[in-house]
Amino acid sequence: QPGVARHRPSINRPMMTRMKGLLKKPLPLLFEIWITIAFAFILMPGAESDSPDGHKRDNILFILSDDLGIGDVSSLRVDPRPSKRFIDTPNLDKFASQSMRFVNGYAGAPVCAPSRCTLLTGRHSGHCTVRDNGPSLNQSDFTVAQLLQDAGYTTALIGKYGLGSNGTVAEPNRKGFDSFYGYTSQENAHDYYPPYLWRNRQKEVIPGNKDVARCVANREQCVWAQDLFVNETLRFLSDRAEAAARVSTSAAPFFLFLSFTTPHAGGVGTNAETGVPVPSQGRYAHQSWPSVERDFAAVITEQDRQIGLILDRLDTLGLAKDTYVMYSSDNGPHNEGGHSYEYFNSNSEFTGFKRSMHEGGYRAPFMARHPLIQPGSVTEHHVRFYDLLPTAADIAHVEAPPHAGIDGQSILPTLLGRGQPQPATGYWEYCKPNELKDGWGQAVRRGKYKLLRLVNARQDRVSLFDLERDAAEQRDIAAAKPHIVAELRAVMESQHLPDPYCAPFSG
Q1: Which of 204, 411, 466, 494 has the most CB atoms less than 10 A away?
Q2: 423 prior amide bond cis, ω within 30
Q3: What is the pLDDT of residues 454-472, one digit of tens each?
């Protein structure tokens, strides 16, 4: 039946007849046994899901929220500013109890596109092609989707891409995704009720969103893009389960990147970031909060419900036992469209928000689930977005090509409870950070220490923080530890490659 990922196949009778004919000839007994086993292996569905060296290759589902803060997930929240305002996230809370949770989870950058660039390419923001919203991947950029596609995976991207337009070398179908459904454009993804979405290289019109005035008057009458993404995801999972159950079809493992646009600020029939236009405020409609904050809470709870549907479908189809599910957000919480990240303490105990070089700008929830991962476990191991590609390579039992220039390291040993050393350093950079607007910022973390550099025409300032004692980065200890400052400053110098689009400030 379609909902079962694997079952014993019916015997291919013509093939078996030919086998018996061959075996009537006088062959040595051991050779007969070898031939029988070899044919049986060929006829097994799912044999192709093993790597060339015979290792089992599991599916990978990566779910990404857009501008969601750690404090927006109720079970992850550490609240230094007591508040009676809470957002319900029962499915993510359940997922956390089933997963390994990384308390040192880091997105790739404090803003959308460069963060996604690091996630897909395995290179940090000092090396990746896309350093700010706007540029695209280039011909030589090698992605985790290409890695897994080359390894025989079925690959799909559903939702927001933001790293290149169709008709260019950066389009999703040319960067390793067998199928794509969603937005290619960073800006178009701000329209929650779009007139069309891309299906691979073709525009797919959404007739229900043609009348923008009607959508503005009553959003529930129109088509919310997130619902389309979830429906597409459920269909993809069902198709993969059916493929695994058919004798005549190879059961290739899959890599699915589900990239939500929520809770990013957006509009209705426009790219303007005028609010967080969820179809309904649901359980929050009667709260005495500002309307935009009721919308914000409702969009997170609705996304949580949708993630629950997807996880339930994995279980129902029998895919969960063979799937690594990872969840994160592309940067810290936003402060746009009239919403305040402080209203729900979205940045938890950290300082800063989206576009900040303080921890609140790029600290992110990070959780991973698989039957081999200890449920409810918590690790201090540092995970950065650019660790995904080498981790996926480990899961698929392949190696990334040397030209990929990978900065990350696989976290699979940590996921499987084997332990591993912390990364030597973590590196982030961004132009126009919140702290300066007109300047440039860098950050390096090594162990418990973080060096932050902010530079513009008026200053070139570095600060050092002990994040184990001061997660909020309130006490600068640079003057007390000049040798650590010098060492980490040297790391900053070595990890930045010049980039014309987002260059360091030179006044």
Answers
A1: 411
A2: no
A3: 998 888 999 999 999 999 9
